[in-house]
Amino acid sequence: MSDKKIKRYLEDAINCDALLHGKMAFISGPRQSGKSTLGRALLSSTENEFNWDQSRFRLAWAKDPEASLQSRSDGPVLLDEIHKDRRWKQRLKGLYDIQGEHLPIIVTGSARLDYYRKGGDSLLGRYLPYRLHPFSIGEIANPPTPENWLERSVNSTFPLDDILRLTGFPEPLLRGSEGHAKRWSRLRIEKLLSEDIRDFRNVSDLHALRILVDLMPGKVGSQLSINSLREDVGVAYATVRDWVLVLEALYVCFTIRPYAGKLKRSLTAEPKLYLYDYSLVESRRAKLENLCACHLLKMCQYWTDLAMGEFSLHYFRNKEKEEIDFIVTRDKLPWMLLECKSGKAEPTQVLKKYNEIFKPKFCFQLVDKRGFEKNYPAFGITVIDYEAFFARLV
What is the pTM of this model? Predict the structure, then answer.
């Protein structure tokens, strides 16, 4: 089975949103999450794919971006990894301003393109951004909206155990081999450290950076202490802080920040850390929490990118150490509370308390019990197994 045969959840959205209305489509996301495959699926001709890593195209683009595309056919063009050109913004802006009206442009990159958009000529108003995630348990070609997601039938596109063992990245997931998945993960990190980091930022001590990356699976779900990492890695505080930002920009990890709202005793300190490739996370409980964070982030970013609202992912912790694993906000107000548990089928006291305080539209407690689902109307809480919950999401 190949990921080329699976229609990704962003394909129709990009066609009907950006390309239909004369905007460039910027697709970013983790390395090997399927961006190039998605970009090709949006083309009407294979002659319209142009990759920065192809030396002939790279030289032609540097001389004259418009002339470098002369071999194209009708329909959209795909510019893959074009952000590696230091002047990509100016050149792309010029190309769009000249031909944008009749030249649909798709730009893909394995780094957060918003980092490259800072400074210089602005591309504002000329593009729409989309963030492609690896496969999720319930991914389908036509994802649900914030209004109908809970009405979806519980059908898993990919089983929970497969996603946990192999991650949601197309190659290891569709290959189906745990041994291959581990090798793939190792080679992916090595390539990222040897190539992507070099293209993104000059890092003099790659050995120390590798130590930081190796430490991250053990930090999943924990508050991220830069000072603690500084002691483990043996470099300056500012260096570790900057490296974490670089790894976020390259989609190695992501952090979620605490939600404060108007509560006086909430903490607004360290964020919590999660990984896009969680294959090296040892604890099943931590891996389930990481998987939950990935599913919720994908949901939030899809709905936000498609202008269905401003969705954001947070956690809550106060000075008494009461904690809610995840809070999804919609337009900056609590919309969903969610607790990750192993087998506890009764709603926790903390979840009951803050469901009453925050009054979100949805409140769930996830349990590692296949097929379990029970509503507690008195508390407004549903306890449900992980796979059934994930299957309803984007």
Answer: 0.94
